[in-house]
Amino acid sequence: MNRLTAVGCSLLLLALPVLSGCSKEGRQKTESSRKEPTPRATPSSRVQTQTGEELFKQYCAPCHPDGGNVSDPRKNLHGSALKANHITKPEDIVRIMRNPISRMIRFDETTISDKDATAIADYVLSAFK
Ligand code: HEC
Q1: CB proximity list for 56: less than 8 A, separation 6 or greater
Q2: Is 85 in the pocket of ligand 1 (CB under 6 A)?
């Protein structure tokens, strides 16, 4: 009987971090789509990617949280949607930043430099498969 209780307890203990881990992640995601982005503590080995990620969070994430699209879900930033809309190269994404199709706001060079725009584009292409 004691042994059974012990087994039950340890199973519960094993399951707890998994459950709380999941709900925590879910909460972080909804928060990050609403609030100003805060720099991540996780270090990245590729500086370029980190810069693109930070810029993306600052300029694009409000409308494209996690590579989605809050106003037009079909025009999201995942590889399959981009390909369907003939967006395959970093230049294609930079072009959309400079000349958006309709509801997306325009980002000119004074807001996002060509270098930063390319960093964001590289990030989009590598982060959202
Ligand atoms: C104000 C909200 C908003 C912001 C901010 C925004 N976008 Fe968009 N984006 C849209 C909307 C809406 C569309 C759908 C096309 C349209 O209506 O212009 C779109 C479409 C796109 C597309 C085409 C996706 C596809 O599958 O066809 C790309 C690429 C894109 N955005 C990249 C970016 C990048 C990179 C940034 C940050 C520099 C950004 N967007 C910031 C709203 C936004």
Answers
A1: 64, 120, 123, 124, 127
A2: yes
Are residues 124 and 56 in contact, defined by beta-carbon separation less than 8 angstroms?
Answer: yes
> pLDDT, tens digit, for every residue of 6-65?
555 455 455 544 545 444 554 555 444 555 555 555 554 444 445 899 999 999 999 999
Q: Give percent of the chain above pLDDT 70.
A: 61
Contacts of 71 (CB under 8 A, 6+ apart): 63, 103
**Angstrom distance (rounded) from CA 20 to CA 15:** 9
Is the beta carbon of 75 within 6 A of some atom in ligand 1? yes
Q: Does the beta carbon of 59 lie inside 6 Å of ligand 1?
A: yes
Phi and psi at residue 50, in whole multiples of 5°?
A: -65, -40
Q: In the numeric block, which tokens belong to residue 77?
A: 């930033």
Check residue 32 and give its pLDDT.
47
Which residue shows structure tokens 């270098």? Answer: 115
68: its two tokens = 């989605």
8 A C-beta contact, residue 49 and residue 126 = yes
